[in-house]
């Protein structure tokens, strides 16, 4: 007769084996389509400097490709990891817990992937266009030529995209949590009590972080305050709906 701990450890071992086999299969597929993967991860820079990159040592291109491959494997196998976690933990949960875990993971993960693709295909190209304008100088005695290192570009691109998408992911995860728990009632009460402090912190952070340009700061404050008021209106609608 096997004890429950042994059964749990055996199931974990089997599920980990399936998961790592899936990661290895993805790695083999990525190796066969390495040119398409490199093109996909350098797409946002392709219209600047004619998509040319430089390397400073012989192993830089290989290290960059390995870094890209591990990121692709992590993104591609995230749904599979969620499936195994749900199947392993769901046997000891109530139906309400399974429903809560399923909804918060699906909606928050969807917001993460949408924000990641939006950042990579919309935000970063405009950021590169802005940075590329600094290669133009009015001092004609100097000629500035942009030469992008593929390793530096890849690291900076993926880290920036993940930072922005993770920030949006944490925000939406918290919102979805409040929505699933009590339909945003407590969130509305908390935000209504601390609305003045929130606006003060927005103005303070804007004056510290942004350049000392009046137009830029006023425009940024206006956009953030408008979004916060729209968010407050949404919480008001949920609060009124639950108290009718």
Automatic annotation (TrEMBL):
Subcellular locations according to the entry: Membrane
Keyword list, A-Z: Membrane, Mitochondrion, Transmembrane, Transmembrane helix
InterPro entries membership: TatC
Primary residence: membrane
Pfam families tied to this protein: TatC
Keyword Transmembrane set for record: yes
Entry GO CC: membrane
Topology within the bilayer: Multi-pass membrane protein
Positions of transmembrane segments: 16-41, 61-83, 104-128, 168-185, 197-213, 219-240
UniProt-recorded name of the protein: SecY-independent transporter protein
Organism: Pyropia dentata
Lineage of the species this protein comes from: Eukaryota, Rhodophyta, Bangiophyceae, Bangiales, Bangiaceae
Gene name tied to this protein: ymf16
């Amino acid at each position: 007769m096997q004890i429950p701990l042994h059964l749990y450890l055996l199931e974990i071992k089997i599920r980990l084996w399936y998961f790592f086999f899936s990661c290895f299969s993805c790695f083999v597929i990525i190796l066969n389509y390495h040119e398409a993967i490199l093109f996909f991860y350098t797409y946002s820079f392709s219209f600047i400097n004619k998509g040319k990159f430089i390397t400073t040592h012989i192993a830089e291109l290989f290290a960059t490709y390995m870094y890209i491959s591990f990121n692709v494997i992590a993104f591609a196998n995230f749904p599979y990891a969620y499936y195994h976690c749900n199947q392993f933990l769901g046997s000891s949960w109530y139906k309400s817990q399974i429903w809560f875990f399923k909804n918060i993971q699906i909606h928050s993960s969807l917001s993460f992937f949408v924000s990641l693709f939006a950042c990579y295909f919309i935000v970063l190209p405009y950021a590169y266009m802005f940075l590329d304008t600094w290669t133009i100088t009015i001092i004609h005695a100097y000629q500035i030529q942009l030469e992008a290192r593929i390793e530096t570009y890849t690291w900076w691109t993926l880290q920036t995209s993940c930072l922005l998408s993770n920030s949006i992911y944490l925000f939406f995860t918290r919102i979805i949590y409040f929505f699933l728990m009590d339909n945003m009632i407590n969130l509305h009460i908390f935000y209504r009590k601390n609305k003045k402090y929130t606006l003060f912190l927005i103005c303070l952070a804007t004056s510290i972080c942004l350049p000392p340009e009046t137009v830029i700061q006023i425009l940024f404050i206006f956009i953030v305050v408008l979004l916060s008021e729209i968010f407050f209106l949404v919480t008001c609608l949920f609060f009124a709906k639950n108290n009718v």
